[in-house]
Amino acid sequence: MFGKRLVLASALFVGYVAVLALGQAVTPALPCTEAVLAENCTLPDCRCSGIDIPGNLTVATTPQLVFLTFDDAVAIQNIDFYREVLYNRKNPNNHNITATFFINHEYNNYALAHELYRLGHDIALHSMSHNPLTPYWANLNQSMWRAEVVDQRQQMATLARIPVADVKGFRAPFLQTGGDVMYSVLQEGGFQWECSRPTLNFRKPGIWPYTNDYRSTQDCQIQPCPVGEYKGFWTVPMIDMLGDNNEGCAMVDTCTPVPETADETYDLLLKNFNDHYTTNKAPFGIFTHAAWMNGADDEGLASRKIGYARFLDFLATKEDVYIVSISRAIEWIKTPTPVAELADFVPFQVPVKPDDCTVVRNCYYAAEQTPFPTERYMTVCDACPAVYPWLGNPLGVS
Length: 398
Ligand SMILES: [Zn+2]
Fold this sequence. Notes:
InterPro entries: CE4 (IPR052740), Glyco_hydro/deAcase_b/a-brl (IPR011330), NODB_dom (IPR002509). By secondary structure, the protein is α/β, with parallel strands linked by helices.
């Protein structure tokens, strides 16, 4: 009896917190039980959180999926790094590898975002403002989340000519999610997945991406985490790497000690890759910023780039390793397909799309046309907006 009352009390508490955070009720997610697994939660629409391989494939027949992700603006300063390191690499199906870009608005070059998009990379969002204060993200209300993310997708569609339907994912700045408020906005806004939640408890064997139809068993490293039910909306966990000091690091840029040489970089990536490859092959993510590797060698940047590229060379020797964007990986999880059949797996094929950004404009905005004290430059497809686009005016209409 006492136990039941405790359960009831905690359920009420969870509901109370959710109401507080949202200003309206969320439906608390129910636990994923054996009965749910058997009857109510099956692929392609639903997957409970866990370390089991989708489709109950064996380890030997499961491809090791690898995510290469890069946060923040795409710009003249980093596009040559992406071209050098990512372009012209092939997966075992002889199609190009694809990465995932989490792009925020300020200083982004939309013509270059279009280039990445048409070559098959995933263009995901990372907020319009990238506000530097984490409490801002933890406490943001629904209408502001819409302005930061749903409006940003419209901005990307207009300025980079990327169809709304092809912008599917999100990562919160500094991995500071807004819990249920953020999840509700992403789901209602038609996004398919988010990738902001680090896990240390489920790193070896790793937790696979899951939908939020039922209660997640993932650890909550950065509060708040969602407790509501978001049917069909995917969480792509950020499985921590371990630095050489044995401490977890969600972004490889934060692993310590920071690798200084190509060999140290290669060894760090290989060691963490093997934690996935030798267990349940949960997707291995190298989550980083170009700034970790892009530049002169006085801070180890060029050496890290060499070690990173050498690691990608090593992955290319493996017939069961596929470097794919997160949206493509989710298609695999929805329809688990053995390695031997991947030659014909459509989501891993990467046809180049037509160039839909043939008119590129370099736009200038004096300080009075921006919300900032200083001027801004912006490169877009087609036409320059009248004023600098920002929260509340994502297309920069005057
Ligand atoms: Zn960022």
